[in-house]
Each structure stands twice: as C-alpha cells, then as structure tokens.
Structures
1.
Amino acid sequence: MKHVICGMLMGKSHERQCLVHDFPIILFIEFIFWLTVVYAQALEVPRKMGVQQGIMQGITVGFTNCTFLCSYALAFWYGSTRVRAGKYDGESSILKPFPHSAAKACMPV
C-alpha cells in the first residue's frame, strides 16, 4: 500500500526507489502481522480449555452454595415446626442444629 502511495506522489520513476527504501519497514510490518496471527491461533486451544474449566468451576461452586443454603433452610424450617409443636423454645431451635455457631457465643448463659 505504501509503495503505491510513494509512486503516486513521486511519479513512476521514483517508485522503484521508494520500494527499495521501504522494503525493511514493509517486511517488519508483515512479520508482526504474521506473529499476531500465529499467536492468536496458538491461544485458541488454551482459551477453550479455560472457558470449559470456568464453566465447571462455576457449576461446582453454585452447587456447593445451593447445598449449603438449602441445609440452613431445612434446619430453620425443622426448628420452626418443632417450636410450633411445643418441643423446643426459640433459643433451642437456633442452637441445636448449629451447636458451634456464632449464635451460641452471643447467647447469655
């Protein structure tokens, strides 16, 4: 592209001189372009692997959090049914499912 511009500006007689003068620059630009293409192709497989690993890690963390929160929900639901049945009072329904929790440390003795 640059040799065409040089030819238009300087006339046909100077086109050959412009090509010889700019050859290292053109070669360098083509080399950088080739490196970019090769680098992008080399990164395609690791990118796909990273996407797959990210999806699997997201599913795993989501399942773990879901299990954790569902166990808390089940414990509080069961505690509320025991309170309604008269088997536990409010303090016992919180402290029995979680004997080592921070709620026990906050309760007066």
2.
Amino acid sequence: MATQDSTSTSPTPQMRPDEMRGLAKRLRARADSVLLRDQCEQQADLRQAAVLIDHLVQLHAVIRSAEAVADRLHSLFKLAGGR
C-alpha cells in the first residue's frame, strides 16, 4: 500500500490568529468601500466572510484554552499517581 503523497503541490502555510483578524478587517473595509456601494450582494458576502473568520479565530482560542486545561489535568493526574 502506497503511503506517498502523489500531489505535486506543497502544503499551504497556516495563518496566525493575528493575521486572520487582519484579513477580516481588510474584508470589512473592502465591503464598506465606496467602490462596492452598487454591489450589495458582494458587500454582504465580504461582511459575512469577515464574521466567519472572526468566529474561527474565537474558536481557535477556545480550542487552545481547552488544550491547555487538558494538558494541565493530565499532568496533575500523573502527579497523583495515575498513568
């Protein structure tokens, strides 16, 4: 069974939360731009994309926090004689 990746594309680097917040801010600014005043659907799409990115950043923070709590609990369990 082959385990090699047969694609020729390289993995895309992931954005940091601060970069994602910056992207959301730019999308909102673009949506509020005078250039898009006559394109309501595109404005709405850009605003919604910004909201989704903000939610993703918040979710990322919650996951990181839960990870830290789980790691700490595991350490405490080991100190108490658990495996």
3.
Amino acid sequence: MLARVKSEFVPVSGDCENYKGPIGVEGHIDGEIDVLIEAKRVLRFRAYAEGQAWGANSNTWHQPPGRFPLVIAIIEADDRVSRVLGPVWAGYGADYRTPELPAGK
C-alpha cells in the first residue's frame, strides 16, 4: 500500500520551554510511505520537511537569535545497525558512533 504524507506542523498551544528558555519548530512535511501490510513492514519511506526553529536545546549549538531555517530529510533504514540500535540522533553516544553488532545479524 502506497500512501502520501503531507502535513503542517505547528507549536502545540504556544511555545514550549526548556531550561534555556522558549523553544519551538513549525513548518511542513511531504513524503511517501510504501507498506506491506500483511508483513507489517515498511518497504520504502521518503519524506522532506522544511520549517523554522527557535531557541536552544542540547542538540542546538550556537543557534542564531530568533527563528532559523530547519530542513530534515528522512528515509527508511533496514541495515544491520538500524536493526540493533533504535532511532536516535547519531551523536547521542559511543554506541551510535561505533556500534557492536551481534554475529550473524
């Protein structure tokens, strides 16, 4: 089954805040997902998002003042590493930089 993904994303009930102050993101995402429903398997996923972000968090260093551009591209992953490690920002820790893979997987 092939489905088209298209949506706007906006802050929920105003800006969020963390220990560094207000943060947020808004924009749109557009993509396609192809799913084999019987096997509960994603065959193909492609999405592209554009928007604006603001504020600082642990993943944003030296962000400019005010709003700044944000671009995200997403694809499916079905390699040995992605089957062992969950989806997280790649700089999260040593497990993501140098994963140890079980033999035979």
4.
Amino acid sequence: MPGLVVRIQKILDDIGLEVIRAKEQWGEDFDRKNTQNDWNTYVNIYLSKAAAMGASFEEVETNLRKAAGLLISAIDAHQSGGFAPRHYEGQTRPASLPEVK
C-alpha cells in the first residue's frame, strides 16, 4: 500500500496545482458567476476530451486532471457561498408542468 499512497498523493498534488493555475487564470469573480450547470458543463468538456478516440496518454491525463480540478473548484464554490442562481431558479413553477421525480 505505501506505493499506492505515494501515487495518490502525487495525483492530488498535481490536481492542486491545476486548481491554482486555473484560479490565477480565471479568478474568483469568474468562479462566483458560475451556476452548477456551468460547472457540470466544464467538467464534462474535459472528461469528453479525455475519452476522445486517439487521445494520447498525456492528453488523457491532462484532461482528467483538469476535470478533477474543476470538480474541486466547484465544491469550493459551493462551500463558499453556493453557486450563482440559474436563470429559472426562484421562479414559480407553472401548474401545467408535471412534477419530475
């Protein structure tokens, strides 16, 4: 297990560096304007790039690391005051719309 612990720590360190890089590029103000849908979309973009046919080993790893960094940033945004509201949040649900469960 010691080898696994070392590998996981290296992965987490690399993801932490990605979070810092992205925060320096985009800034906290940009993050606060993102809805949960925005965060989900950003993560899915990089997961899709990682899964692309013909993606190299390096491209897969880079895009998985970016997706993981975005997930951490999304959790941080959520814990630091929540996501920006979606355009339809807070509106009265029309009676004609069926409830989705």
